[in-house]
Write a structure and sequence with these properties.
heterodimer; A: mainly alpha; MetI-like fold; two-stranded antiparallel sheet; 12 helices; 2 strands; 72% helix; B: alpha/beta; D-Maltodextrin-Binding Protein, domain 2; 2 domains; 7-stranded mixed β-sheet; 5-stranded mixed β-sheet
């Protein structure tokens, strides 16, 4: 127990503090936001900023130490080995983007009917079961799921065993870009299902009735009512599937064959070489692509569905 | 929110961002200074252990089967970080401002990483006088080019192994006897090759014998013409390759699952596959092979140097070398390990070529980081940067 006088003094201090905060509302806001903003600015943006600054540095060819003088050599240089000059880097960037787009499209096609069924048709009980089923893969490590696919697609794996069982030849999918496409579409599917589900669930039943009253058949309702209202959800989901594929390097390393490098694989190689400036320079490509992508997605209303 | 408040907030955010930039720039600036100090020749005696030892190692390089005894004897508790590739080892040593970042004591670097670490100033000189077994080493491992520069030792050699030609005995008949098999269109879609720029040396080694007019003397020292010829051979090979393995366990899995039946890999993988009952056999063609030799290298900012020296002293002893060799499937650099190997597994000393005469080592071309200076004073060799870029072009 404290002395009455001391308690009084403490109470006084507390009162004057709260009065001071009441008089200066901005101070209250600043105190409240200081920690998250500091974490965001220093930890989050600081790391990114330091990476991109180093994109304009270079390494000493002999010691492989970073030299801190400004240069565009990583992008364009006299030896024709810059990012913008060397054909292989262009091929790799295009492969990465193309795969991200293919995976996103595949996931939209797979997720939409599933999300529609979950949101509008399934009973409560079945919906819960389907939710668990969609999220179940996320309970295990991403790496484990990739290895599982490698075992399935291997020459002596489950897929070929099943095909041979019904008299078909080997699929020959192991270590190909098709294998990467399958694995990516699988691992990122839940990230598409959930936002599309959220968008579809929000459509009021009355809209369907209104469409029917106006003579809209199933296809017309789908085209003019469901798709426009689901679009923000699809755009939101596509941000996940597109950016997650764009930044990945593990799937290409584990299930890709010859000629399957992604931007991430080159970044990893260059960091180890070690040539961090070049890695940073290549890492700007996905950031720029995502900036454009998010600007487009925002126009489609993606951020209203998150 | 009124305008005044909004301005306060804007200023606060601006100040924080500036602060973040300053911190980032200072962090980057700090790292450049760290490596400029000169190397010292190392201590004259080993002091008392600091109670801990932090290792960056190839998996099993501090296997508890022999490391536990070391921990009991010295009180140095081992904290290990397994690395999957040479690049990863270099990246770990470079993190936190280089020199091991004040976190790591030793790294078990292979020859394709060791010169990068030496030239980058990440490792420091080691007094080999404090490592008694060093005097017993096979002569070529006392001061090899991959860990000794200008007569200064940056670590002690440990073990080595060849890069072998592995094939599936049921699918490849008759078995290959030469590296030519890896360039033979007959085996299209069945081949696996390590995904590592140092693999260019394997192609150069192949051309050394198949195209002697190129004049390749050392597969790690290639001038522009030799390099271009090697890369074009590799681009042809790329059409035959099913998988460029990143970790040897991936190459192993491809053999085990039947995806590949021929490839370049390490003896440890042969042992693992044979133990699983996969019908594989390894060959070292009569012309020889490239090989890797590992070195325990001392980080420049090693926080526990005494424990590091105690460890280098411990693992180079014949008994421990023998134990490690048989756990990992590699060859000790200390020939006194021979009887201890045979005691653990009869005939293993000969199996791992520890009893070979000195001229045997002429057929093994040990990994070393390529540099521009090929010893002829002309600086016209392709450096590791060029190797890395070319390798990316080959693998796509």
């Amino acid at each position: 127990m404290t002395e009455p006088g001391e308690a009084g003094a403490l109470r006084g201090a507390r009162l004057s503090l709260s009065a001071a905060l009441w008089r200066r509302p901005w101070l209250k806001l600043a105190l409240l936001l200081a920690a998250p903003v500091l974490a965001f600015a220093v930890v989050y943006l600081g790391a990114l900023v330091s990476l991109f600054i180093s994109a304009f540095w270079e390494v000493d060819a002999f010691t492989a130490q970073v030299i801190h003088h400004w240069t565009l050599d990583n992008f364009y240089n006299a030896q024709h080995t810059g990012l913008l000059q060397e054909k292989v880097y262009r091929d790799i960037a295009i492969r990465t983007l193309w795969m991200a787009a293919a995976v996103t499209l595949t996931d939209i096609v797979l997720a939409f009917p599933l999300a529609y069924f979950m949101a509008r048709i399934a009973s409560r009980r079945l919906r819960a079961v389907l939710f668990v089923a969609v999220l179940l893969p996320l309970w295990s490590s991403y790496l484990v799921r990739i290895y599982a696919w490698r075992t399935i697609l291997a020459k002596d794996g489950a897929l070929n065993w099943a095909l041979n069982g019904v008299g078909l030849p080997d699929a020959g999918l192991a270590y190909t870009n098709t294998a990467m496409w399958i694995v990516f579409s699988y691992v990122w599917l839940p990230f598409m299902v959930l936002p599309v589900y959220a968008a579809l669930e929000r459509i009021p039943d009355s809209y369907f009735e209104a469409s029917a009253d106006l003579g809209g058949r199933a296809w017309r309702t789908f085209r003019s009512v469901i798709v426009p209202l689901a679009l923000p959800g699809i755009a939101a989901g596509s941000i996940f599937t597109f950016s997650l594929t764009l930044g990945d390097f593990i799937t290409p390393a584990l299930v890709g064959g010859a000629g399957s490098n992604f931007i991430g694989n080159i970044v990893e190689e260059q960091i180890g070489q070690p040539n961090v400036p070049f890695a940073a320079a290549f890492a700007t490509v996905p950031v720029l692509v995502m900036a454009v992508y998010i600007a487009v997605a925002r126009r489609l209303g993606a951020f209203e569905a998150l | 929110m009124n305008r005044a408040r909004r301005r306060y907030l804007a200023w606060a955010v601006f100040a924080l961002l500036t602060g973040a930039l300053a911190v980032a720039a200072a962090g980057c600036g700090g790292s450049s200074k760290s490596s400029k100090s000169t190397t010292t020749s190392g201590p004259s005696s080993i002091g008392k252990g600091e109670g801990a030892l932090n290792l960056i190692e190839w998996p099993y390089y501090s296997d508890p089967k022999f490391a536990n005894k070391f921990e009991q004897q010295t009180g140095c508790r081992i904290h290990r970080k397994d690395a999957g590739s040479s690049n990863q080892m270099v990246a770990l040593m470079r993190a936190g401002g280089g020199g091991g970042g004040g976190q790591w004591d030793l790294v078990s670097a292979s020859g394709d990483a060791s010169l990068r670490l030496i030239r980058g100033g990440d490792v420091k000189q080691v007094n080999v006088g404090l490592i008694p077994s060093w005097n017993d080493f096979i002569p070529i491992f006392k001061s090899p080019a991959h860990n000794t520069v200008d007569g200064k030792h940056y670590g002690v050699s440990l073990q080595w192994g060849p890069n072998v030609l592995l094939y599936n005995t049921t699918k490849i008949k008759p078995g290959p006897t030469s590296w030519t098999a890896l360039y033979d269109p007959k085996y299209k879609g069945q081949i696996t090759i390590p995904n590592n720029p140092i693999q260019i040396a394997d192609a150069a080694f192949y051309l050394m014998h198949s195209q002697p007019d190129l004049g390749i003397k050392d597969p790690y020292e290639l001038n522009k013409k030799q390099f271009d010829a090697t890369i074009s051979a590799l681009k042809q090979q790329r059409k035959l390759v099913k998988l460029y393995w990143n970790y040897d366990t991936d190459g192993r899995a491809a053999f085990a699952n039947g995806d590949v039946s021929l490839g370049a890999i390490w003896p440890v993988d042969t042992l693992a596959l044979q133990a699983k009952g996969v019908p594989v056999k390894e060959v070292i063609p009569s012309v020889g092979a490239t090989g890797w030799a590992d070195t325990w290298m001392l980080a420049k900012k090693a926080p526990h140097p005494n424990c590091a020296y105690l460890w280098m002293k411990y693992v180079t002893q014949p008994q421990v070398e023998a134990q490690q060799a048989l756990i990992f499937g590699e060859t000790p650099v200390n020939p006194k390990a021979c009887p201890f190997m045979n005691k653990i597994e009869a005939g293993s000393c000969a199996k791992y070529h520890l009893n070979e005469p000195l001229n045997y080592y002429d057929t093994i071309k040990f990994w070393k980081t390529p540099i521009a200076d090929c010893g002829d004073g002309k600086n016209d060799c392709m450096n590791y940067n060029a190797w890395q870029t070319a390798w990316t072009q080959v693998t796509g």
